[in-house]
Structures
1.
Amino acid sequence: MLPDCLSAEGERRCRRLLEGATARLRARPAAAAVLVPLCSVRGVPALLYTLRSSRLAGRHKGDVSFPGGKCDPADQDVVHTALRETREELGLAVPEERVWGILQPVHDRGKAPVVPVLASVGPLDPQNLRPNREEPHQVRPALSLPGETGFWRTDTLPDVTLRRGLNPAHSESRALSRHAG
């Protein structure tokens, strides 16, 4: 059974709450869009992030972020930008009907608007993600799990992590890998 936040009722409630913002913001010009991917990993609700390589030049090296990037002129709107970037970065194709809505824009360090697009990607096996090694950002997938204070690189996420990761008594599960290296 899915956790309440990922249930059909949770989705309906969320879509209703975001309906107005989605209608207002979908076609509004923005510098960039990101996908806020809700998922479950072995039955545990999680958020999927990207971990930028620490070997990159520039201001985003080593950053943990949602998948996304700059809007291209060919993108129909911010939803298409977020979905395209997620597919390019993580090899994860999210159908548009999985989008729950659009959140209020945030601003990056340069004050450019970035539009978060909320979507459920459903149950996820981190081992099936195929990050695009040709991407200039050289990203790796990372997960945030309930009860954790950091991020897990999905290539370092052992089975025991999800069983023990929710229990702070297991100190070895709290040694989070933060570097894309």
Note: The chain has one domain: 4-174.
2.
Amino acid sequence: MAKEHNHDQLKRLEDKIDKLKKSHEPAPPKDEHYSLANQAWRMVIELVVGLGIGFGIGYGLDVLFGTLPIFMVLFTLLGFAAGVKTMIRTASELQSEKEKADADSTETTAAHAAENSKD
């Protein structure tokens, strides 16, 4: 009878501890709803900067050599290509970060499931 009484007390104590742990757990991290917009603006800025730098170099060379539209058009197109290349590199970096975060969360979930199955 005493063992059964102790078992009931331990069970109630475990329930109280679990309840307190849940109440003090930090809230799960929420994705910023602006994060995608920030990433999009970053890519747009990279493209515009590439265009601007290409235009500036091309215009400077045209003024220097007296051939106004040739270098400006050429370097503007090269700036556009550089901006697109930078955007693609940024997108692949963001994709690899997302895949890494997904893999980490999957491993964590699998580890928790394995621990719970042992109990």
Note: Residues 37-119 form one domain.
